[in-house]
TrEMBL record:
Protein name: TF-B3 domain-containing protein
Positions of region (Disordered): 1-28
Location (main, coarse): nucleus
Keywords associated with the record: DNA-binding, Nucleus, Transcription, Transcription regulation
PANTHER family, per database record: B3 DOMAIN-CONTAINING PROTEIN OS06G0112300, B3 DOMAIN-CONTAINING PROTEIN OS11G0197600-RELATED
A single cellular component GO annotation: nucleus
Organism this protein belongs to: Nelumbo nucifera (Sacred lotus)
PROSITE patterns: B3
Single GO MF descriptor: DNA binding
Keyword DNA-binding: yes
Aminoacyl-tRNA synthetase found in the keyword field: no
Amino acid sequence: MQSASTHCRQENEKAGKTRKNLRSHVSRMEHQMDNLKAQPQLKPTSVRLQDNKISPLSGNPYFYCILTKSHFKPLYQVVLPSKLQQYLPSAMVPVELTFRNKSWKMYYYGDRGCKRFNMAWRHFVIDNKLKIGDGCVFELMESSPNILRFKVQVLNGDLPSDFISNIGESESSPIIID
């Protein structure tokens, strides 16, 4: 049987641990709040999904890009990020992009040093009137040795013309994506 003083001491130790854990938790929360306060406040923007249709991602692998000059003529090039390449074949494979219930066919060069879509990407660009500053989200819907299928969402960027003329042209005007 425990004495009253032993029981009291154990209860005080438990309460002390609880207070310590609570202080630690509060301290972490205060630190998180300070970090939130330090972040710049977002400003309203004109960027919106074309046709005002927002489709949540399904949980499949995806990548996004803000379109720059290299996505347009003469190269019409979309390089797929390395984080996605683990889901893709290491071969040249047909690709189907789907946007607004319409499809575009092209090829993925997975057997090259630069994993990318071929120049048939230009048909998607032209048909959808894409421009520098627009954003594209490519969600991988199917990946097999026979075909890749991506669902694409396009966000209208409407960047100011004085910004577009210098975007990504030199080290003094890099493209920065957070």
